[in-house]
């Protein structure tokens, strides 16, 4: 499942704390100019809650081209106590992620999704109140107080389809809306890139792909990351080496003296679902 369409894969925290490197490429590491720190996430480590506008993570260089397909996915957790109407002071405009210099500009990409109620997935924006506004879905309270998988998709080849997926399911979509007229550069988690509209959430496993992922792919990635143990099995395979980046492995159960395929997992428990290694085992994979 790992392919060249990934521009970035930010795990956000692993092993010893915050990890802002890009696993898809040495370029495009995140910067943390504020107090963001690590905490238990959905897949190993994630971030602590973004308390206010000083909490955000940013990369100034990652970009997508004019009218280019994109899929942006992540895990996000927000407490009901920070939602509306439980906490009216939090009510207002909150941005989960933004791409581009300013969310009010045409060449920007923005997800307004602080409470899983009335989220808006913009691919391009034609000024305040313009046709880039899409009222997609209002989520039930069950989406609070737990990790939720978000995937936002734009497909220019399918009538400019914009789709928002939660936990692998399409919850809202639109077509024939506006599109960008130039390159969109820079990405920020937790607010827009001018510092507005902070989102009081935790985040984990943020990925950007320069392709429109299919519904089946999105569902599979949700299932894979949500329940990694259900996505490996022992079977007849041949030896294959994956690479040095994935040498830190936990023990993976297997019948004695059999050859089989097992998913490598790093010591923190973070799954590398797109990579596997075939092995001969004496009951455990070392």
Observed structural traits:
286 residues; mainly beta; Jelly Rolls; 2 domains; 7-stranded antiparallel beta sheet; 5-stranded antiparallel beta sheet; 1 helix; 4% helix; 36% strand; globular; disordered C terminus
**Count of DSSP helices?**
1
Could you tell me the number of beta strands? Answer: 16
Question: Percent helix among the residues?
Answer: under 10%
Mean pLDDT: 75
How much strand?
Answer: 35-45%
Describe the protein's architecture and organization.
With 286 residues, the chain is mainly β. It has 2 domains: 6-226, Jelly Rolls (Sandwich); 228-281, no CATH class. 4% of the residues lie in helices and 36% in strands. The protein has 1 helix and 16 strands. The strands form 4 sheets. It has a 7-stranded antiparallel sheet with strand order 2-1-14-6-10-11-12. Strand 3 and strand 4 (45-47) form a beta hairpin. The two termini are 24 Å apart. Residues 127-138 and 233-286 have low confidence and may be disordered.
């Amino acid at each position: 499942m790992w392919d060249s369409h990934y521009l970035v894969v930010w795990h956000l925290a692993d092993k010893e704390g915050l990890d802002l490197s890009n696993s898809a490429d040495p370029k495009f590491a995140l910067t943390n100019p504020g107090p963001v720190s690590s905490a238990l996430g959905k897949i190993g480590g994630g971030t602590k809650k973004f308390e206010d506008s000083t909490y955000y993570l940013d990369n100034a260089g990652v970009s997508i081209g004019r009218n280019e397909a994109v899929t942006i996915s992540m895990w996000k957790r927000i407490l009901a106590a920070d939602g509306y109407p439980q906490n009216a002071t939090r009510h207002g405009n909150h941005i989960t992620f933004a791409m581009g210099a300013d969310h009010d500009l045409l060449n920007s990409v923005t997800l307004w999704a602080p409470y899983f109620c009335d989220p808006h997935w913009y691919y391009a924006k034609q000024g305040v109140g313009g046709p880039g506004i899409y009222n997609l879905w209002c989520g039930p309270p069950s989406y609070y107080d737990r990790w939720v998988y978000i995937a936002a998709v734009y497909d220019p080849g399918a009538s400019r389809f914009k789709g928002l997926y939660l936990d692998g399911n399409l919850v809202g979509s639109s077509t024939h809306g506006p599109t960008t007229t130039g390159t969109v550069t820079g990405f920020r988690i937790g607010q827009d890139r001018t510092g507005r509209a902070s989102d009081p959430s935790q985040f984990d496993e943020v990925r950007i792909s320069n392709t429109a992922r299919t519904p089946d792919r999105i569902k599979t990635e949700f299932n894979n990351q949500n329940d990694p143990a259900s996505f490996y099995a022992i079977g007849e395979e041949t030896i294959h080496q994956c690479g040095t980046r994935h040498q830190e492995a936990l023990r993976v159960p297997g019948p004695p003296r059999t050859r089989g395929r097992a998913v490598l997992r790093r010591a923190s428990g973070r799954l590398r679902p797109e990579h596997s290694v075939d092995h001969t085992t004496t009951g455990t994979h070392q």
